[in-house]
Amino acid sequence: MARIVQKFGGTSVANLDCIRNVAVRVKAACDAGNQVAVVVSAMAGETNKLVDLVKQASALHDSAEYDAIVATGEQVTAGLLSIVLQSMGVNARSFLGWQLPIKTDGIHGRARIDDIDGSQAVSLMEKGHVVVIAGFQGLSPDNRVTTLGRGGSDTTAVALAAAFKADRCEIYTDVDGVYTCDPRIVPKARKIDRITYEEMLEMASQGAKVLQTRSVEMAMNFNVPVTVLSSFEDKPGTIVAAEIENMEQEVVTGIAYDKNEAKITLSSVDDRPGVAAAIFGPLTEAEINVDMIVQNVSADGKTTDMTFTVSEADFDRTIDHLDRHKSEIGFKEILADRNVAKISVVGVGMRSHAGVAQRMFKALADKGVNIQVISTSEIKVSVLISQDYLELALRALHTAYGLDAE
Amino acid sequence: MARIVQKFGGTSVANLDCIRNVAVRVKAACDAGNQVAVVVSAMAGETNKLVDLVKQASALHDSAEYDAIVATGEQVTAGLLSIVLQSMGVNARSFLGWQLPIKTDGIHGRARIDDIDGSQAVSLMEKGHVVVIAGFQGLSPDNRVTTLGRGGSDTTAVALAAAFKADRCEIYTDVDGVYTCDPRIVPKARKIDRITYEEMLEMASQGAKVLQTRSVEMAMNFNVPVTVLSSFEDKPGTIVAAEIENMEQEVVTGIAYDKNEAKITLSSVDDRPGVAAAIFGPLTEAEINVDMIVQNVSADGKTTDMTFTVSEADFDRTIDHLDRHKSEIGFKEILADRNVAKISVVGVGMRSHAGVAQRMFKALADKGVNIQVISTSEIKVSVLISQDYLELALRALHTAYGLDAE
Predict the structure, then answer these.
(1) Complex-level ipTM beyond the 0.85 threshold
(2) What are chain A's domains?
(3) Which of A88, B95, B107, B211 is most buried (most C-beta within 10 Å)?
(4) How far is the alpha carbon of B175 from chain A, nearest alpha carbon, in Å?
């Protein structure tokens, strides 16, 4: 017998047939003797519909009222799933964020969870009841509804698993796990059976998009084992958990990519101490997130080129910002390239294996792919290449690291 | 300066254009120096959509979960109106039932209000803020969302007006007030400027359907003056308030009708003490509401006929019930007639004026309308006639009581 938190996303509860399918899974877990809490998202499309209403009401809407409106999506699903479970003979009861309560800070639209009172829910679970919790929402210190931001239901599920001292958190979604690479591009991609929190963070933030980054961070902090599963198929899924010493470790676990970056080069920047701070300080203040950074070796000892990447969404703001601060920063011109892609090979195994980066460079060179920028971390090597070569490069790397399925 | 509670029904907030129209009215009341609280219903159609979802989830759904789901309709409207008001420069804040809180009993689906904590809302109103309250909902003693039943937003508005010690409660709807008779049948019907609570109760329960009966009862109990107004036109509306001694009183204020009654006659019932109790006791236990009752004078001294009316909705259950208890009650046969209509002339003035009933009987006789059943109260005379004569009878009575518009 285990205590389990199960989370079902919007596509898994898109309509009443889907909700019945979810109820069957929940009931099966109960019948197997487990204590079960369920976290649900809004029915697919509902949140967008509500957000549209808010935007139509006012472009500059109040975020506290936005939260009160948008949180209704999860409220409806939680009630419907409880009703369907009851009709199957399962004792079920819905809980909204304010009812447990899930206490958050007061940052509306992207609140952070401060504390969860799990006592009532746990005592119901111990009696064999299923508690169905509306995801994505909480209660602010001044008694208002807050939302945790997009994808927040994953975070709700992991936070509840920690608060309930659950044995595991199961995230049901429309894919059956985390893959070594995007299967739409690399047909030989394999499902990963087990991945560490750190690797998952690198994969997710690089575009794997199966699990919300915040929820992985929280799972890591509270050491909650998370399983990613399909709600439409009966397959084992991917376990996201802490590193195990004697785990049979692949050197590289997976290959992630991101097409939503843009490369910016400032030419003839003064090669003096503090120039990097002069460029990136103001960008940070403007909440522009800079990813890869490369500073070329100065050719003449006086000036250098500074290259970095920002997300596509921040591109226009970044250019505008640099133009306005041109004289302070001191550079000749801005060279921009949006036709780039970042590829990252990820794996905790590379800590103890040399030559991981070299294998990447060779595989790309063999295919004639030019590397524009390189950045490395303890468990990741990322390169920026022309987007034209993205698919070719991913398939070549997938083969080079021995990830191809049989 | 006055403190006002304004309530807007579903058709008044059917879409964002309607909500903007509502916001203009609210702002005007604020700009005139009033303290304003607003109660809103769900956008027209939303509640039905949610109820359908619940019914599809399970025919025998749990009423606590029904409430959690259905209450979201008002939650969305309250948030949207707050946002629109803010965009017009009005300080506005939404409140859900649990946030004030509006404390109710735990009877889900038709909860009754026990107590309202108005302190937070009043202190905001005193600072010039508008509080926007989701109608129709409250909080049960065990921290669950309750709903007050259909039309409950009127009740919310009146209860809040009482709790806030408001000067008046304004109910905005899709008609511009209460009429002397249904204008679709009687083109000469006039809008009533002022009507007493008691008269309104008789008019409403008879089919005037402008204001929820419970809300009128509550307004009467707490002496809250209520104004019924159109949210689409700028007209004075109808004031529902206590009787004023020196009010220029019409003898008859209005004429109501109800086509949803059915007449049932039990023939050859024993004319003995206790027979009425034997018939109606079990019907009451079965929650069948009996309206008019007539017991004919016994012709032979042994048996009599017992005639009464029930609502169409209860008709089949009533017949079934009587059939099953035929031997206990003791009657020869059941005669039923669904093609009947009840007409009531209503007016507090008739207390002090003789001949009101007589004028009714004469007006109907002049048109050849046969009266099947008569019942009277202090401020009402009701007759049951064939539904075929309904329109004819209403117009004749409207003229006979001098109610026709110029």
Answers:
(1) no
(2) 3-174 (3.40.1160.10)
(3) B211
(4) 26
